Amino acid sequence: MRAAVRPLLDIGLPPLCPACRELVRDSAALCPACWSKLNFITRPYCERLGIPFAYDPGPGILSMEAIANPPAYGRARAAVRFDDVARSLVHALKYGDRLDLAPPLGRWMARAGEELLAGADALVPVPLHWRRLWARRFNQSAALANAISAAVNVPVTTALKRARATPQQVGLSKTERAHNVQGAFHVPPGGKPGIAGRRLVIVDDVLTSGATVDACARALLRAGAREVDVLVFARVVDTVRSPI
Ligand SMILES: [Zn+2]
Predict the structure, then answer these.
(1) Reported pTM
(2) Which tens digit of pLDDT belongs to each residue from 69-84?
């Protein structure tokens, strides 16, 4: 339906850069200025958390944070830093009904998460509570997971459920965030066969404190998952962290 309607729409509405609304040639393409401001995360980074290092400490070095406060998940990777352009893209996908952004974002994520996806059995989007899903009409994490699935041919599972609605994480401290999502996710008995013994990759749009994906990883591990990694579009990198 969407594909059939598209050419007509394109005549009426010229494609705009999803970040700054400047005219562009292709829909779902960034203008050159925004493209140059997007910060892709590449090595060197903490092999566990995927947090970029300011300088190269050598292969396999972990961040202080990964050692002091190891997460429930194995490894986390992000395509880009969560800065202004990334925020606009996430916002357009999440609230602006720009579902056409999911395929390019998914492809960037597939590249960033290549090692995680290589041995993965399934992708697990972070679930929305049904009330929020109803209000927003779609789950941006599921849209990204479907886009990654199309790019790398790893299936998506919806076995992980949100047991209760949680207040938005925005404006909460790290401790409050962890408390907020504690016990919020679970795998119902019927979903366990698809989770037990599997290597899974949780998919989300943004990683801030990591509390949400950590709570998801705990729920999946409780259901018997063998390995759980995390792949997000953007991650917050607030300070320059030095390796040990
Ligand atoms: Zn732009």
Answers:
(1) 0.89
(2) 999 999 999 999 999 9
